[in-house]
């Protein structure tokens, strides 16, 4: 579900369009977990490409496969996971790559902020030691140089009196400050891609806004690509250029942010939007999507969303829907998805 980016070049006095490769290109990514008595597939051929400097939102309910996609791409799923497909970064396929190659990419080139900073930071080590370890690993900094850079990073993410805070333990900081420490640690390797996995979970609204504003500021200053994983379309709308909607281990819609909100092509996307409260206009009752995301070992034979869909047809339940081009840079995996002014199936 990727449309190659084009850039203009001048050749022999003429302007021509050149297709540039994406910064990272995920193709046909599948993940199976060995549960002992059976093997369960949780990702079903994910295709996703990110351009340099692009901000992409990955949305969907819990269990849709948002976090697993990137944990698989970075080789962080453990021995029970069987990962297949291709994750091409800087000309190399990360799937099945040796450990030393993955370690050179993780943190230094692609960094990830995890959902719970309290469980990501070591409670028995001071903040300064943990930041200095990351700086030594990714940039070779030690001693006073590492301490100075650690203090600069804490100051960069908005922690006051940074030099003193380096001596604090994680439990001495608030949840919002620990999340800022995690962002500073992610930035320590000067990554090209930052994956923020629910970076505002368990934070109050004011701190959420500050963290998201900080991520946007860092992205603008460094031309870093940002992947924002969230279940909140409102947060994604304000902080990304493009949205990929995931459901039951598949990307079901991929479009620019305005197309997703103005012209959603998949019933699941429409359902997520219908559940969003509106700040302006008359109050209305929110419409919930009935049912829950199916368990990976109990998917229906056709479209995974069919049991919850209000527009389901017999064709939807018979086979998996193909991904179709709705508009330029807008694709959806639905039999009813249609181009503008074209009727869908059953319309």
Brief write-up:
This protein is of the alpha/beta class and 347 residues long.
Explain how this protein is built:
With 347 residues, the protein is α/β, with parallel strands linked by helices. Helix content is 31%, strand content 25%. It is built from twelve helices and 14 strands. The protein has helices at 66-73, 99-105, 117-120, 127-139, 143-156, 162-165, 175-187, 205-222, 233-239, 257-262, 267-274, 314-318, and strands at 5-11, 14-20, 24-34, 39-50, 55-59, 81-89, 92-93, 110-113, 193-197, 225-230, 242-247, 250-256, 324-327, 330-332. Strands 8-9-10-5-11-12-14-13 form an eight-stranded mixed β-sheet, sandwiched between helices. A four-stranded antiparallel β-sheet has the order 4-3-6-7, covered by helices on one side. The protein has a two-stranded antiparallel sheet with strand order 1-2. A hairpin with a 2-residue loop joins strand 1 and strand 2. Helix 4 packs across helix 5 and helix 5 (143-156) packs across helix 7. Mean pLDDT is 87; it is low at 343-347.
State the main characteristics.
globular; eight-stranded mixed β-sheet; 347 residues; alpha/beta; four-stranded antiparallel β-sheet
